Amino acid sequence: MTEQVHNLLQQLEQVLLGKPEQIKLALACILARGHLLIEDLPGMGKTSLAQAVAQSLGFSYQRVQFTSDMLPADILGVTIFDKHQNQFIFHPGPIFRQMVLADEINRASPKTQSALLEAMAEQQITLDGTTHPLPSPFFVIATQNPTEQSGTFPLPESQLDRFLMRLSIGYPDSMTELAMLKGEGMLPYQDTLPQCMTPSDLVQLQHCVDDVSVSDALLNYILALVEASRNQTEGYGLSPRASKALLQAAKAWAVIHDRHYLLPDDVQAVFTAVAQHRIRSSSQLQGETVSSRILAGVNPIQ
Question: Are 181 and 252 contained in the same domain?
Fold first, then answer.
């Protein structure tokens, strides 16, 4: 593992105590050039993690609190006629940051949720017939409350598929929570964390992800997992976009562990985070449960 990656993980683990796997998955998502969805109860550290990642990477950052009355223009920006210049001037919205935290995204209406689709897929927005490029690198970290809570609008499948991973932080164990009560971790948002790497350093790491070597046997293993998801008796499985996302996330996991080649363990480590929000079952089974069954049922190809 490079020293920069090690320092970054170490710093993030001081902010979000007791969750090293979730932190590694979040970093793998960023190295794979993907967007991250964090679904959990309020107060579990979702916003703290996003804030810490942005500060540690030196990104320009904007938090957007989604509400039921929010409009797409509140995110993208608006074009206003300037009588002094005698022309329309575009006033960019909060989406024009390197990292955007879409907080409680499922409290906004579907129309507002869909305003993020083009930005997440193509790193640009189109407004009034004009295309505006977004900063590079560009990432969206969205948080959402469980859909059974009141005042939420379920994310449509097209929106869910734009997120490379979905994570759940979960409750801390008793020792970790005791450390939090003593004032360790979960630093206030206004506290400034030291920058561990620059955006250009991150881009170099992303190129390292692209250079990870993958054997045909590993590619066949990924295809077998994808095919197993499509052969469910109920619902539907992973798309070709999902299979590419799985490969890229697994390569990022390998880079985090200082390897330039892929192992079955890398695929298994990221599979549930990549697959669970994309798998739909008409039964009561959750995507996480179906993903676990698929992993258990497909043997790695040696």
Answer: no
Please give the model's pTM, rounded to 2 decimal places: 0.88
Report CA torsion sign: 115, 121, 124, 130.
negative
Residue 204 covered by a domain:
no
Residues 254-296 pLDDT 10s = 999 999 999 999 999 999 999 988 887 655 457 778 888 888 8
- In total, how many domains does the chain have? 2
Q: Which residue has the tokens 């992973």?
A: 238
**CA neighbor of 146 nearest in space, from 286, 294, 26, 291:** 286
SS3 content of the chain, % helix, strand, coil (to 5): 45, 15, 40
In a domain, 203, yes or no: no
User: Which tokens hold the place of 296?
Assistant: 């258990």
Q: For residue 245, what are the domain limits?
A: 211-302
Residues 68 and 173 in one domain: yes
**Same structural domain, 37 and 151:** yes
d(CA 94, CA 273): 27
Positive or negative torsion for Cα 143, 147, 152, 153: positive
Tens of pLDDT along 166-189? 998 888 888 888 888 887 765 554
The helix-helix angle for 216-230 and 240-256 (nearest 10°) equals 130
